[in-house]
Please model this.
Amino acid sequence: MRINYGKFCVVLFFLFVSSFAFSSGKEKIAVVERPYTQSINLNYWHNRTPLLPLNFIKLPVGAVKPEGWLLRMLELQKDGLNGHLGEISAWLEKDNNAWLGTGNDYGWEEVPYWLKGYGNMGYILGDKGIIDETKQWLEAVFKSQREDGYFGPYIEKNGKPDLWGNMIMLWCLQSYYEYSDDRRVIALMTKYFRWQLNLPDDKFLEDYWENSRGGDNLLSVYWLYNITGDEFLLELAEKIHRNTADWRQRSRLPNWHNVNIAQCFREPATYYMLSKDSADLRATYNVHHLIRNTFGQVPGGMFGADENARMGYIDPRQGTETCGFVEQMASDELLLSMTGDPFWAEHCEDVAFNSYPAALMPDLKSLRYITSPNHTVSDSKNHHPGIDNSGPFLAMNPFSSRCCQHNHGQGWPYFIERLIMATPDNGLAAVIYGACRATAFVAEDGRAVELIEDTNYPFEDVIRFTINPSRKTVFPLYLRIPSWSDNPSVSINGKRIDAELQNGKYLRIEREWKKGDNVELKVPMKLYETVWAVNQDSRSVNYGPLTFSLKIKEDYRTVASDKTAIGDSKWQKNADTGKWPSYEIYPASDWNYALVLDESLPFEQNFKIEKRKWPTDHYPFTVENAPLILKTKGRKLIGWEIDQYGLTGELPIKENRNFGSSIDEIALIPMGAARLRISAFPVCEK
Model:
């Protein structure tokens, strides 16, 4: 939505200019560490005082339309599990559904979890059927509000209301308001938050999930405050922080549940926007690094927590829930807006490109509860205690793990919404890269502009932008320069700019833009390694934002219906298992390879890069379709095999390894395309 109100005082936040290059009086080019935040965006809602200013402002849902492989991903999601979950999930049955007001069943997190991704997908695609279905659920939410302000199913635990499901539904309502400008959202949230403010502290955010995840509630309070300016919301923000689990601890977290960590570690940074206490901001960074230093010595951006992180279980065969992937992506996106730190953009891409795609079948009709960086069997057996969970949680199954089944759909819509964002100085920024077409308002007079981003990134290193303002307009455009890029460059209308680009910073181009202007960003990628010292000095092979895994031949086997949870009353009895099959995946080729590296050579010379034709279906995340392949040498590691728990064996101790006699040529493919994979390799020196 657009706004137009006067400027008011803001706090200068994280602004450092590193170098300037001026080509004319109308063109200013600078390399900066953060966007200019001393200005006020007059076109979009932003943080009101006393909140610190946002560095990047999300455009309304639907303003950014995906193209290329991202569009294909969203189309598959529409035709897959997220788009048709109502056919198999009892939680989405409309008879006797508490969220619809037709009964008392299914009143907790599943409906709003699903609606977060489902509704936003519909708004982005402009799909009338999805939007109408979304509105049917939201109309019931509007009708459910009580006189005292509470809305939705009332769940009470130990005499105290459980507000976790409501927190998720608030995010659904916010997206709907961005799409529709329906003022009933503002009225409902205002009344509900007054109810929260009046609730005694000893009854507020007391249950485990809501207590851990109060930061989600805090973000919704900020969102409403930025629209209405109601002062009571700041008092409520303080109350929420006071009653939320303390994620500021240096070494002992409130709990070690993988989704809670991925979702809740950002709460101190969220509160920092109000407190302005740098210790709160540092706390979020501290927790991120704590979990990765302890359990995250693995590729793909995540950490080995299965469901709950356990000391001693740090090998790359430990995994993360699919919920954890999408919540981590959302946290990265939000922290990018709050801090402007390009670290969060790169981390989001790491998870989105390397970890998340392999958690679902290529048709997005089933998913795994747990996915690991080293993951060579995906069956329906119980692997406890090798992983923390007891159950068939490694199979690709539409009928199990109800949190991930309902929650996974937020991943790509939220990602797409942040590809292009507004800046405080009334400009635009491309900070997470992907093909898209965005419509936005820029400059102080709110002129319309279309920005087209054309690329196959991360599978290519050229990103092309076309800028089409409604008429000639001066505004800044920010481009993130990745930290891993090798000699990046930018050209405007075919002329290379003179500014010395700096990795890990932003290029700010302020000029008078006219229709058809183009900007080309080249971020040359090179091969580099990551050494995971605490995991036997294993190595990961990276190329730009992509990490590579051993190419393993994948043997897919349909699981008989009696091995699904279809008999569980929590799933619809008439669900068609033929339409919604479950799969086990077994390796049909050897996987126990160590990389053979000649350490006397530069690392990249141990590999040959093969670039293949772009897939005709625009889906690059399969063994067959991978557009990039690395050829290298490997030797089998004798004794590295499936262990007593039926899991990929832990990395053998490096001082006690026996290798096969032959050196074989092996192939590596992008980690996100490998549903069976070795991504953290032992090494055998040549």
Residues 1-24 have pLDDT under 50 and may be disordered. Residues 59 and 435 are 16 Å apart (CA to CA).
